[in-house]
Amino acid sequence: QVQLVESGGGLVQAGGSLRLSCAASGHTFRSAVMGWFRQAPGKEREFVGRISWSAFSTYYGDSVKGRFTISRDNAKNTVYLQMNSLKPEDTAVYYCAAGSSSSDYAFWGQGTQVTVSS
Questions:
Q1: How large is the average pLDDT for residues 92-97?
Q2: CB under 8 Å to 79, separation ≥6 — which residues?
Q3: In the list 29, 46, 65, 112, which could disulfide-bond 6, CB 3.0-4.6 Å?
């Protein structure tokens, strides 16, 4: 069992940066694939990126590639999403998720709102 709590969301101007954190509890965190997703009003949930348990492998969605970076600190049971060059279309609720593989995210956080003003 893994419990996830996101933080760091807020309001930022276009071109700015934010760093989201996802604090995890549960002994399985260190072996979990961690993913970030987002959902804007009226839109489907969108994959943002993921990081392997070892942090050696990351993968990003096309819309954020080159602007967002995922990292993790297994000693702190925390995964981060560094978001740079933010655009208004990045506005969404951002969720972190944990799973045994990139196709099986069994645990989800409650989400944190990110709003990018133009």
A1: 97
A2: 21, 22, 24, 34, 36, 51, 70, 71, 72, 73, 96
A3: 112
